Structure formats: C-alpha cells, structure tokens
Amino acid sequence: MTPSDPDPIYLDHNATTPVAASVLDAMLPFLRGEYGNPSSGYALGRRAKEAVETARAQVAALIGADAGNIVFTSGGTEASNLAIRGTVRRLGGRQKIVTSTVEHPATDEPCNRLACDGHALHRVPVGPDGRIDVAQATTAIGAGAGLVTLIHAQNEIGTLQPVAAIAQEAHRHGAVMHADAAQSVGKIAIDVKALDVDLLSIAGHKLYAPKGIGALYVRDGIALEPVLLGAGQENGRRPGTENVASIVALGEACRLAASRLPQAQTTIRPLTDELFARLQKEVPGLTRVGHPGERLPNTLNVLFPGVSGREVLNACPAVFASTGSACHADREEASPVLRALGIPEREALGAVRLSLGFDTTAAQIANAAAALADAWRRVAHAPAARAV
Ligand SMILES: Cc1ncc(COP(=O)(O)O)c(C=O)c1O
Question: Closest ligand 1 atom, CA of 154?
Fold first, then answer.
C-alpha cells in the first residue's frame, strides 16, 4: 500500500474485532485512577469490585444467565480449557468425551491431551454443510459419554451446530454439555436455557472488547475442578487478581451487543449475501462453503477456483481477510475444517474467509468484491498460476 491508497477494508472480524468506542470509554477509568484490587476492603477496592459485578451482570444478561453463573477468564481458550479439563477432572476416573471434527484448537487440544492421559475421545463427523451428524452424535453419547463439547458457530465457515438437540441427548444420558460460543455470542441471540448447555465459552475480542478477556458460563449445580490454582477469586473457580479494566470492557461489549443484535440480521446478513452475489458474478465457478441457512450472519467462506486463496489475498492488499490454510515446510496445506467437510485438498486451498462487522459498509462490500475478483483474475491468468 502507498500513502495514497485508500484504507484497507477489514473483513476479518472472526479473527478479531476493533475495540468499540464505548467499550474503550468504559474501561479507561480502570487503567487510570480506579486501579483498586477488587479484594481490597477500602473504597478504591470496593469500587473495583462493584465494577466487576456490574460487568458480570451485563455478560449474564446477554446470554440469559444469572450473574452468579459467570466466571471471568483470560479469553475463549481458557474458558474452554476450564470447561473441558475442569469437568473431566471433577468427574474423575476414565471418561468418554464426545466432540466434532470441526472444533477450534481451544477445544481440540485439551481433548487431545485428555486422550493422551487415557480418556476416550470420539469425534463425530460433519456433513458437507459442516453440521454434525446428529444420529452419529446420539449413538456416541449413548455409549457412556461423560462430557460433550461442541463448537456453536464454526469460526472458518460460520455454520451453526444443533447444540440444543445434542444437549438434550447429553442430558438424557447424564453427560455434561459444553458449547464453545466464542464466535456466536454478540453475532446472534444466545440463551443458555434455550440451548440447554451446562457450560458456554465467550471470547471478548470477537465482540468488540479487547483481547485477553473472556468468560465461562457455568450452570447452577455444575462443579468444576479449577485449572489454575491460587487464591479464591471467582468463587475459587479461576484464581488470580481480576483484570478489572478488561472485565468492565467485556461487560460494556455485551451491553452494546444486545442493543446491536437486530442490526446483525437486518444489515450485516444482507451485506454478506451481497458480497457473495458480487463475487459469484465476477468469478465463474466460485462456490460458498457451509450451511445455507444455519450460519452466522457475518461469515462468508468462498472457494476461488484454480488458485490458492493465499495467492488471491497476497494479490489483494486492499482487503484484510483470512484463509484457512497453513504453510508447513514450504508447502501449503488446506484447512482441516474444510477437509472435514469432504472438500478435496485442491479445492479447499482456494478458500478465503470474509467476515463482516458492525462497521462494514455497502461501499466497502462493493470495493472488496471488485478488488478480490480483480486479484483472482490476475492470479488465475498469470503464467505460473495453477500451482494448486
Ligand atoms: C470458535 C473459537 N473458539 C475459541 C477461540 C479462542 O478464543 P481466544 O482467542 O479468546 O482465546 C476462538 C478464537 O479464534 C474461536 O474462534
């Protein structure tokens, strides 16, 4: 980019979001004069404690929970680790964990570690639309599951999983149900009672709070073995002096999200569809990945034909977006999530994930579609093209 180029168009809101203005305003006092430790008994500490409790109520309100059900963590990864490892340790013995083939590493890796420690791990496959096979999940859960952990909205493709139906099966068989809602909270309405989950992970930086703050919803009566050991903060479930400024930020982000959720459906969803329609018109053979209806309003994962998505994005500095692929020893490997949907490696390498936010405009969508299509034409028609 040169100084005369227009600002790049940020279409990577599933990677992270900017901190909203009201969120920054809410947290700043706690980085300045209001620096008390919530455990301190004098006025400065009491004000910090009150701010933490106000934020707890704000987070709870967004997901239909009570304030006492919210445990603050350092983010989505820690929330899911606490849910998964904390449940298995509390249950004791050898447990069976049921999950899917399209989980985020924040779930996959603790599950892998538990499998190494001798627990049984069952990954239920998904269909071509990215939805878990409910019949296979039901069978796996019925065969003695202690914990079921499922991503609510898949971060790469936006597909929503039938969490409530799976939770019903989990509870019928006495298993604990965890949902990783890092991508869905703040984008669609979430009600923990309707989802019927015992545990639900939240990641602040996906909903306009800063990075490094998150929360775990813990249903009444669900006990967890803490993963971190220390003092008694968060009712002994997550020790460590509270990150007051970021907790306040998460509370405000949740309040803001509640007020903006209708906009996600009325504005963001049509813009996402508009982006797909424009790309489809300009790029013959371009396809969309994921479930057509059961999906996040802001997420568009497309397969550019005959090229790699990385090449398209490298040729398109005007648009900030992601591919699901990874580079290993100079070789590009397709996203394991797309491979789990049955998409052949060669096609999956063409993936680009475009994720919109509350700040995305119609003009940005038109410009991004034109720039991406132009980049695709240049890459596809370059003499060295078709490396994939
Ligand atoms: C679905 C999902 N779960 C968990 C996480 C991890 O959250 P955090 O970055 O707050 O640790 C992410 C972030 O990319 C995510 O998309």
Answer: 1
